[in-house]
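B., you asked whether I could sanity-check this one before it goes into the benchmark set. Here's the sequence:
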Amino acid sequence: MTGEENGQECTSPEEAARLRQELAEALKLAGERLTRLQYLQADFDNYRKSLDREREQVIQLAGESLVRDLLPVLDDLERALPSLTREKNREGFELLSRKLHRILESHGLRSIESHGKRFDPNFHEAIAKGESGEEEGTILEEYQRGYLLRSKVIRPSKVKIAEHTGECKEENHGKGEDNRD
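And here's what the prediction gave me:
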């Protein structure tokens, strides 16, 4: 059986070399195009992920804006509760307050603990200072509650902090005596 009987043409060695060269070039071109396609696919995936992140940020920002707008309502409810004298009204307002707190907490809102804690400018805004027996920088009073939304401060606590009273104990050569005038 010859090559012509199998349906194949007999080619010269030059023709075979040329075909091998064309095949090599075609394989190289196919490899380059495959690589380019893979890069384009990766770029598209990155673009899609970027859009998803951006969409999530827009949603979070809208949620933050809504929560920030509801904080004064929450404050008003908390201020109104102590002044209510009729038991029926008080129970209704307490129920509303608890429900609003739960809803906001389910969306990531947490209050910042302040009273008795060390002042931290990342979480607190000092609006007053007062003399106290407490260590300097200790929060004595909270005027307005601060809040975190997830891990971001959306409103710092407005607080009064302890300041140094001017009296100090000096150590008298290690004896620990009080040398105030």
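One thing to flag: Residues 13-83 form the longest helix (71 residues). Otherwise nothing jumped out at me.
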